[in-house]
Write a structure and sequence with these properties.
mainly beta, Pnp Oxidase, Chain A, 36% strand
Length: 201
């Protein structure tokens, strides 16, 4: 089949997210100007550069009690920082709980039963027990076409790795099974790896 997005797809559910899979989940923690922690998962997330290390995540849609978008973007605009927490399979229920559309004064760490700990390089909380966390300083927010579509880019200023997941000098994702977002309400986990050498290696 072929369809033009402006004409609709004619299927019972939008296939767009199912096409772009699997997607890593950036579990973004921020803090507002009053010091209230916020935590939300974003599957439009990825690394974008090595040197210096940089990441991005995209926020889409609006929220009734937040002008112009979601709490995460508003907090980042106010403070200039955010933290990306990596989601292990064991944290799937807490991650899902933190995706609830809560009032902006509600702390999702508390709501999801998670323990916040301080970051080292930025005034923000991260998730205690996460396999890894990337402390980020905002470099740019880009507004995209559509209602409240925004992309936040950040430079990584600090990296936390859980020592339990370092094996033979490598960060071994098979020790915590990172969660990946698929289409619809579907998720997957990484449980096994294979390697390919590049032709010019």
């Amino acid at each position: 089949m072929f369809y033009r997005p402006e004409d609709g797809h004619g299927l019972p559910h939008n296939p767009f997210n199912a096409i772009i899979t699997p997607r890593p989940i950036g579990w973004i923690s921020t803090r507002d100007a009053e010091g209230i922690n916020n935590l939300a998962p974003y599957s439009f997330f990825n690394g974008v550069a090595y040197s210096p290390p940089q990441v991005m995540f995209a926020s889409t849609g609006t929220k009734q009690d937040q002008e112009g978008g979601k709490d995460s973007i508003s907090n980042i605009e106010a403070t200039g920082v955010f933290c990306v927490n990596i989601v292990a399979h064991a944290h799937r229920d807490a991650m899902n709980a933190s995706s609830a559309s809560l009032a902006k004064h509600i702390d999702e760490f508390d709501h999801a039963g998670l323990i916040p700990v301080g970051c080292e390089t930025i005034p923000c909380a991260r998730i205690k027990g996460a396999p890894a966390a990337l402390e980020c300083k905002l470099t740019k927010i880009v507004t995209l076409p559509g209602e409240a579509n925004q992309v936040a880019f950040g430079e990584v200023t600090g990296v936390h790795l859980n020592d339990d997941h370092i094996r033979d000098g490598k960060f071994d994702v098979t020790t915590f099974h990172p969660l990946a977002r698929l289409g619809y309400r579907d998720y997957s986990v990484v449980t096994e790896l294979f390697s390919l050498n590049r032709p010019d290696d």
